Amino acid sequence: MAQVPQTFLDALAVRTWCGLALGALGRAREEIDAINVYPVADGDTGTNLYLTLESAATAVEAVFAGYETGTDEPSLADAVHAMAHGALIGARGNSGTILAQLLRGMAQVLAQGGEAAHIDGAGLRLALRRAADSARQAVAHPVEGTVLTVASAAAEAAEEADGDCGTVARAAYEGARTALAATPRQLPVLGRAGVVDAGGRGLVAVLGALVEAFTGEAVREVPAARESLAAVRDTADAPDVVSGGHARVAGACGAAGAGADADLHARVGAGSAAGAHARVAVPDAGLCAEGETGGPAYEVIYLLEAGDTAVARLRERLDALGDSLVVVGGDGLWNVHVHVDDAGAAVEAGVEAGRPYRIRITHFGLGDVHTGGERPPRERAQRAVVAVVPGEGLAGLYTEAGATTVLARPGEPPASGELVQALRRAHAREVVLLPNDAELRHTAAAAAEQARTEGIRVALIPTRSAVQGIAALAVHEPARRFDEDVVQMTAAAGATRYAEVVVAERQSWTTAGICQAGDVLGLIDGDVAVIGPDVTATARTVLDRMLQAGGELVTLVVGDGAPETVAEQLEARVRESYLAVDTVVYRGGRQGALLLIGVE
Questions:
Q1: CA–CA separation, 136 and 147 (whole Å)
Q2: For residue 532, what are the β-bridge partners?
Q3: In the predicted model, is pLDDT for residue 67 greater than 90?
Q4: What is the DSSP-derived secondary structure letter of residue 91?
Q5: What is the pLDDT of residues 353-390, one digit of tens each?
Q6: Closest CA to 45 of 242, 246, 206, 201
Q7: Which terminal Cβ of the chain has fewer Cβ within 10 Å, N or C?
Q8: Cα angle at 467 between 461 and 468, to 5 degrees?
């Protein structure tokens, strides 16, 4: 979109800024990923920043879409609240979580005017200062030479500027750019690798987009590796840190994956499917290369609904469990990020504080650097599985089984770009992709094709439900030839009939007749088969119909909204009426359906 220079910040400028910043991070994403060495060399800072801002930009676009065409448009407060909320719920990784807090800090100042149409340069100066201060407060143990330092420098430079929003934004950009160049001198791990801070590099791109939103003029791009080397060479008191630095950029972080999910595969050897499911286990948190003395093994991230007092206690508990603790948010909704050895304890702490959801647990994997020590790059795994899952409970199950997961939130299916990122994150030569939704088949196919152009061998198994994905994962065996493994997984998925129990949102024609809003619907293989008033009774009818065609194993995935006794009653039904059939029950958490049923 064309930018018209303007001297103030209004809702349209926020929208323009988000779009430009997303484009800037998209262009710089791979470069930023490649220089990611702190706090963990997992090669995903650029990606995390991009996905976080994508969520913010999407939220802003949704606000504008809610207004009729014409003179009406959202207020500045509407736009910045949407931007901050979108970033908060979509924040990824350490860098994305801090970016979300930076945007939230700005929004707190920019929205103070209520229905005011815009703010001037003085208001922008205050917003940048609040952003830097709130981000620093959100980090348990701030470290200089990181994105926090760059944000503070931007705020300080803005405070020295006198003029309109364009002038203030340019001063902030130049201050951030200067601070970024100095980060290798402040943080030894950056100096050894010959790079600037990756998170700070991303923030400079975002501030450059802010300048362009006001002036209509694109700023000069910052070349990360070259900029850092120049900064280090200009430092007379640190001539030794540059030795071999540039050559080590790829070795230090370029080949590092964003998690070693593929290395965690729990071998589910031969035997009954029920036995295979039962043998899935949490990987050993102590897995690390011989002699590795890095930090915690897991990254844990979740959204949390909790009050301020409970969050204060949570900070103390998580700080004792691990490091890289960042808790951002407020008004009852928080984004929690921490690196720990005991992922379960980190989640349990969240449960005690309030209601955690959208839980993501990533193992840093064999040979990954946690604190920036120098070591050989991690080799790609031979094979991995990437799966789309509808709820946090299943995400945990799939992750424990070794899969890299993509959470499909109700009403928010993942885009092909998110699936491509997961395929990269799996860090394997061969990847099996399980979309687990009939409507995602084309999206998954596009992602698979993109990954193939990058040299990844991808097999797409057209699973239409998460229970089919569970069946496929149960027979997955990386020791087999790739084609044979795909055939076995496809056969297991195809042999699994699937059903779901949901509540109708409105009156509608179905294959089983007319349903009313509030009716309970039982869908078998995607078609409505039963309409009833009661969840348990409808589920029982669906299960009976499915088992009439035979079966050896029933899989039940119970959502948060289902009656507490539904699984127990269905298990009893199977025991009483189908003696040769086993039952396994999983908790799906917040998922679109009240209940998923699989029959193998």
A1: 10
A2: 520
A3: no
A4: -
A5: 998 887 877 776 533 333 333 444 457 788 999 999 88
A6: 201
A7: N
A8: 25
